[in-house]
Design a protein that fits this description.
InterPro entries: Cell_wall_metabolism_enzyme, Dup_hybrid_motif, M23ase_b-sheet_dom. By secondary structure, the protein is mainly beta. Helices cover 7% and strands 26% of the residues. The radius of gyration is 15 Å and the shape is globular.
Length: 203
């Protein structure tokens, strides 16, 4: 499935299931000078994003409010957005299975207790092991199209604690996502924007 078709399917799904978008308070986002987060793909590459409020649902108390989708081909290198400890990995599911809760992932816990989640990774696509300590910018795996997915992409979010393991991915209180600003790209004062392409730059 090409990127354009994936984006069309994603937009249709959003329009049919999402409630009206919540108002976002830009003050909750860290400045680019202070944020510890880097874009989760290689320097010099660019990805168009589907961002935060597109995942908002009243039915799940808005736990996906600050989640981000990066459409990218299967096998694209995924980088750690922030330093931390690998606390959970799953990589045995096959691409294109399109089955809910059967997606591969890597979860990384940060020193403040938050947990970054990298979803829909490819079969046997993890480059690290549980218990490893990674730095921001380390290659941790390869993107894929596992689980319930409209096409190849990386789903990235950060939960306020955890890890929440399947099938309880969004269990509260840890299920609430936190707002993310990325240090190594162009200015985005209120989070990255849907449909905008962001290039990962060298600091």
């Amino acid at each position: 499935m090409n990127k354009n078709k994936f984006l069309t399917i994603l937009l249709l799904a959003i329009s049919s299931t999402a409630c009206s978008k919540p108002e976002i308070d830009c003050a909750v986002f860290e400045t680019q000078q202070n944020t510890p987060y880097l874009l989760p793909y290689e320097i010099g590459t660019a990805q168009k994003v589907y961002a935060s409020t597109e995942h908002y649902r009243k039915s799940n108390n808005g736990v996906g409010l600050y989640a981000i989708d990066f459409p990218m081909p299967i096998g694209t290198k995924v980088l750690a957005a922030r330093a931390g400890e690998v606390v959970s990995i799953r990589e045995h599911f096959q691409d294109d299975n399109n089955i809910d809760l059967e997606e591969n992932y890597i979860f990384i816990k940060h020193d403040d207790g938050t947990v970054a989640r990298y979803f829909h990774l490819t079969h046997n696509g993890a480059f690290i092991e549980q218990g490893d300590i990674v730095k921001a910018g380390d290659i941790i795996g390869l993107s894929g199209n596992t689980g319930q997915s409209g096409g190849p992409h990386l789903h990235f979010d950060v939960q306020k604690c955890g890890p929440n393991l399947p099938p309880h991915y969004n269990q509260l209180p840890c299920g609430q996502t936190v707002p993310i600003t990325f240090k190594n790209t162009k200015k985005h004062l209120c989070g990255v924007k849907t449909g905008v392409k962001y290039t990962a730059t060298k600091l």
